[in-house]
Amino acid sequence: MLIESGKSEEFDIPNDQSRPMSTNSIYSIKSFNKKTETIETKKSKESKPKKKSGLVIFISFILKNFGILFVVIFYMAGGAFLFNILEQHTEIQNCQSGEGEWNKLRIDYRSQFFNYIYFNTTPNPWLPVDNATKEAGLYVEKDGPPIYDPILTEWIKDFREKLLNISDTLKYTGQDCEKQSSWTYFSSLLFTITIMTTLGYGHVSPATAEGQIVCICYSLLGIPLFVISTVKVSSLLGDLLVFITSNILCFCCRKSKKNENNDKLEENSNEWNDNEDKNIITVVNDDENEEQDDKDERFVPLIIVLMVFAGYLMLGAYIFTLLESDWSLLEASYYAFVSLSTIGFGDYVPGIGKVMSGNEAEGGKNLLIATIYIYIGLAILGMCFQLIQDQIADKVGSIIENLNFCKKNENESQDESLIRSHSDTANIQKEKSNLHNSQIEVREATIISVKPKDESSC
To answer: Which residues are CB-neighbours of 269 under 8 A, at least 6 positions away?
Structure first.
């Protein structure tokens, strides 16, 4: 039998460090340490911010602020090319068919008018008018004015209606169909911006089914793109105008404000010295002053905003009087205002008359200038609206703050009056209690004073 003893023997198990290590384990530990060092160095390199070059910073700035503008320009250029392909070929075909119908109509009515006037209203110069010719039946009575006037008037009206029908349906007015086309590239470019800005001049319009479908799809994407780009450009122009007004135009204003602030600081320093003598602590809120300085820096006077818009309007009027020699200053101003206000009647379109007359180069230049003027003008108009909106919001906010401050003062005055009333009632009750206690003490004093001085003598 085995007998378990109560004693327990202890064995010292050596640690791993005390054990001898093989060369393979040593090499594996070194390689592991090298790998960890390389990983750490890679992480440290990745964590360090890479310095960007000036060209990369400039390109990123341009793409960030003007990327949407480049997208809109590319979208407009591509749309102009697409509408030019879709509509110009069909326009030339309609113009040629209208020219054929016009020539046929002209020949038919010319022969009709000539035959009637020659045989029915004009006497024959080689046939003498006498009794012999009348008795022989050679002479025929000619139509007089009471007869041929209504007939010729009816033919002229019919001829006019057919001409107007050809002009309306086939857009032919006697022009050269190969050289004079309203769907040039620059005219199509102006058409695309009238779609994106919802101007809608109506100087050209898609006549094919394909062009009308493309116009619908183009406007669905183009209008939001134009709005986004206009907001971005107008914000940049607003920052530029704020910078100009705060650093250049308002230099005198800031100088006068600086002098006023210096005077206030001197007054405050004198007050602080007096308060230090009287051991009075004054608190100055610097956050309000900083907020006021920020508002002053973002403030653009309303008169400057209106002057910027009016100046751009008059600049456009002057430019269009130079481009269109037959426009007066009033007509050019009318076109600029109608375009920038997105009314777009289409009764005045720069360059379209020269394009239709065959001078495509000069007319295209005028159309391109009008396109650029409209885009920049709408961005300036958005900037003016944004600045006016900011001023109105600031004024409304200040009015609300003043109203809240008045209400707060009224509530504080009411609370102070309530506190005063409660304190007055408490003081009155304290005075009553003090009077009551004083009466009791007097009574006790009188009772005590009535007692005899020596009780033992009694």
So the answer is: none
Rg of the Cα trace of the chain? 49
- DSSP alpha helix (H) spans, 23-144: 23-47, 54-116, 131-136
| H runs (alpha helix) in 117-180 | 131-136, 145-170
**Those residues with Cβ within 8 angstroms of residue 68's Cβ, 6 or more apart along the chain or in another chain:** 225, 228, 229, 232
Q: Which two tokens stand for residue 405?
A: 């401050």
Quickly tell me which residue has 């020699």 as its tokens: 325
Distance CA 172, CA 102 (A): 9
Residue 96's CB is within 10 A of a number of other CB atoms, namely 14
Whole-angstrom CA distances from 441 to 61, 438, 446 are 91, 5, 9
Residue 243, amino acid: F
Q: Is the pTM of this model over 0.70?
A: no
Tokens of 115: 């035959």
pLDDT, one tens digit per residue, over 300-347 is: 888 888 999 999 999 999 999 999 989 999 999 999 999 998 888 888
Q: Which amino acid is at 295?
A: K
CA distances from 198 to 216, 341, 344, 374, 380 (A): 12, 11, 8, 12, 17
SS3 313: helix
Report the alpha-carbon distance of residue 353 to residue 252 in Å, rounded.
50
Please list, in sequence order, all residues whose beta carbon lies within 8 angstroms of the beta carbon of residue 226, skipping any fewer than 6 positions away.
Answer: 72, 196, 197
What DSSP assignment string belongs to 6-27?
S------PPPTTTS---HHHHH
Which pLDDT belongs to residue 394? 81
Give 56's Cβ-side CA count (13 Å radius). Answer: 4
Distances (CA, A) of 263 to 257, 266, 282: 10, 5, 18
User: Residue 149 has what pLDDT?
Assistant: 87
Distance of CA 294 to the CA centre of its chain: 23
The residues near 126 (Cβ < 8 Å, ≥ 6 apart) are: none
Distance from C-alpha of 243 to C-alpha of 382, rounded to nearest angstrom: 17
Instruction: Name the stretches of the chain with pLDDT < 70.
Output: 1-52, 123-141, 249-298, 405, 407-458
Q: What pLDDT is attached to residue 432?
A: 56
pLDDT, tens digit, 9 for 90 and up, residues 209-221: 999 999 999 999 9
